[in-house]
Automatic annotation (TrEMBL):
Endpoints of the signal sequence: 1-25
Domain of life: Bacteria
Start and end residues of each SPOR domain: 52-129
Keyword Signal: yes
An example molecular function term from Gene Ontology annotations: peptidoglycan binding
Keyword line: Signal
Protein's recorded name: Sporulation protein
């Protein structure tokens, strides 16, 4: 193995430092053109993620039965209550329509009283994960 003299070491170090300072990587600006539908898709995904049930939320079940009737019930509910989200859950052998994502029991019971005027067999549930 060959050992460099101190003057050659200094010259090699200066050369490497000079070379490193002159290299410019990725100095350009990047413009990304994306489809506007992509942003809509992200917003829809965010909305779905917020409606996923957790242990500390309450929901109201407004229907339990066949698939077609559950879809019809959910569509009717969404037309009448635009500010409350709803979903269909399959629990053998029935399809259930759950609405709302209420953080407190009081909030859920207030909405339950209002929804009971339109749908007869409704009740409050606290689903597990």
């Amino acid at each position: 193995m060959r050992i460099l003299t101190p003057s050659k070491s200094v010259l090699l170090t200066l050369f490497i430092v000079t070379l490193a300072n002159t290299i410019n990587a990725q100095d350009q600006n990047l413009t990304v053109n994306q489809d506007p539908k992509f942003e809509q898709l992200l917003n829809t995904k965010r909305k779905i993620n917020t409606s996923i049930s957790t242990n500390d939320t309450y929901k109201i079940q407004i229907f339990s039965g066949k698939s077609e009737e559950a879809k019809k019930t959910l569509n009717d509910f969404k037309r009448e209550y635009t500010d409350i989200d709803g979903t269909i859950i399959f629990n053998t052998p029935n399809y259930k329509v759950w609405v709302g994502n209420f953080r407190t029991r009081i909030e859920a019971e207030r909405n339950l009283a209002d929804i009971k005027k339109r749908y007869t067999s409704v009740f409050l549930i606290k689903p597990s994960k």
